[in-house]
UniProtKB/TrEMBL annotation:
The protein's name: ABC transporter
A Pfam family hit: ABC_tran
Keyword Ligase recorded: no
Coiled-coil segments on the chain, per record: none
Family: Belongs to the ABC transporter superfamily.
SUPFAM superfamilies with a match to the protein in the record: P-loop containing nucleoside triphosphate hydrolases (SSF52540)
Alphabetically ordered keywords of this record: ATP-binding, Nucleotide-binding, Transport
InterPro entries xrefs: AAA+_ATPase, ABC_transporter-like_ATP-bd, ABC_transporter-like_CS, P-loop_NTPase
Presence of keyword tRNA-binding: no
Length: 340
């Protein structure tokens, strides 16, 4: 949700990614923000000393208020206002496959949170994601309820194709159209009515290439992208251009993409990220994990310090496995030295 907090917490890079149109505000107000990407707006204003503020009659509070008002106005103009305002979702208990009531009161997930969903094959992980996508109102096989901002969801989320509550990143990302990466991103950026299409394409391409092992270019046809590259492209595109406040991921397989960076990119844009996974590294990257058993939510575990420590060990192991994979791909022999 948009309030003064974003000026305190978001860096310029984040602000520009989330609300690319703010560059116009900075230009109009003669604020030179070039080179301050890692700074927050509050910190940026903080560096103007009293003399400067007096000489130029700078009203810092007004600048902040106006920036927030500008963002809200632009979002409303672009028809994005409602989509931006999902601050939390709440899951209310239903029943498992045997009809037993789920033993929790309510699970609330806030924007910027990552939640993993684990459980045996066929236990109901995808079903939970589907309940969220459908904003279940005790009318799905699980009889769960899903609230948006603590209230029963507006039916617009269910039936509107432009007001998408959820962006899905599924296992298979096969492009069928004959477009280059640039053309694909341009189409998407234009449909979102962003101002600085070229800059947004650059940002997405840069982010995607940071996630993918093998680099690709603007001119690469989307049909020529590898599994990992297309996944990286879709993740960067979702984080930067999609206005859906919730991202549902049905397992990011290990297709050579940096999964930690990918999750970071998604949550940096204040999205709620839910990820169904069998992978321990991904499960522990989440702040909380939901354990599903026989179709019901069986337990909710917060990732504690010990698990976070184990996560960093797991990441080292993943690195070793990644290196082995790389060597296998290059046709090298595997030897003991690769295990350190
Ligand atoms: N509480 C429930 N009541 C009735 N049916 C359920 C319930 N939960 C899940 N199911 C059904 O069980 C089947 C398997 O569930 P689902 O596909 O969600 O499993 P999964 O954990 O995602 O499996 P996998 O790990 O193989 O992807 C689906 O048909 C789903 O609709």
């Amino acid at each position: 949700m948009i309030d003064g907090k974003i000026l305190k917490n978001m860096t310029f890079d984040d602000l520009l990614l989330r609300y690319p149109f703010v560059t116009t505000y900075f230009d109009n107000n003669k604020l030179d923000v070039e080179g301050y990407g890692t700074m927050t707006f509050d910190d940026y204003l903080g560096q103007f000393d009293e003399d400067y503020v007096e000489t130029w009659a700078m009203d810092k509070e007004k600048i902040k208020e106006d920036l927030l008002a500008y963002i809200l106005q632009m979002l409303s103009f672009l028809g994005l206002k409602d989509e931006q305002s999902v601050g939390s979702i709440t899951i209310l208990p239903g029943q498992d496959k045997s009809g037993h009531k789920e033993a929790f009161e309510a699970i609330t997930i806030k924007s910027g949170d990552i939640v993993s969903i684990v459980g045996p094959t066929g236990s109901g992980k995808s079903r939970l994601l589907a309940d969220i996508e459908w904003t279940a109102n005790f009318d799905t096989p699980t009889k769960r309820g899903v609230l948006i901002n603590g209230a029963v969801a507006d039916t617009k989320w269910r039936f509107s194709s432009s007001n998408k509550l959820v962006a899905q990143l599924s296992q298979n990302m096969n492009f069928v159209m004959d477009l280059t990466v640039e053309e694909f991103l341009e189409l998407h950026a234009k449909s979102r009515m962003v101002e600085n299409v070229d800059q947004v394409i650059n940002t997405i391409l840069e982010s995607a290439n940071q996630l993918a092992g093998e680099q690709f270019m603007r001119t690469t046809p989307v049909t020529a992208l590898s599994g990992g590259q297309s996944r990286a492209l879709m993740i960067a595109d979702t984080a930067i251009l999609s206005t859906s406040p919730i991202v549902l991921i049905d397992e990011i397989e290990n297709a050579g993409i940096d999964r930690k960076k990918a999750l970071k990119l998604l949550v940096s844009s204040e999205k709620i990220v839910l990820i169904a996974t069998h992978d321990p590294t991904l499960a522990l990257m989440a702040d909380q994990r939901i354990i599903i058993k026989n179709g019901g939510i069986h337990k909710i575990i917060s990732t504690d310090d010990e698990e976070k420590m184990i996560l960093s060990e797991l990441e080292k192991l993943d690195k070793i496995v990644g290196n082995l994979r790389h060597n296998l791909r290059l046709g090298n022999r595997i030897d003991q030295s690769m295990f350190v």
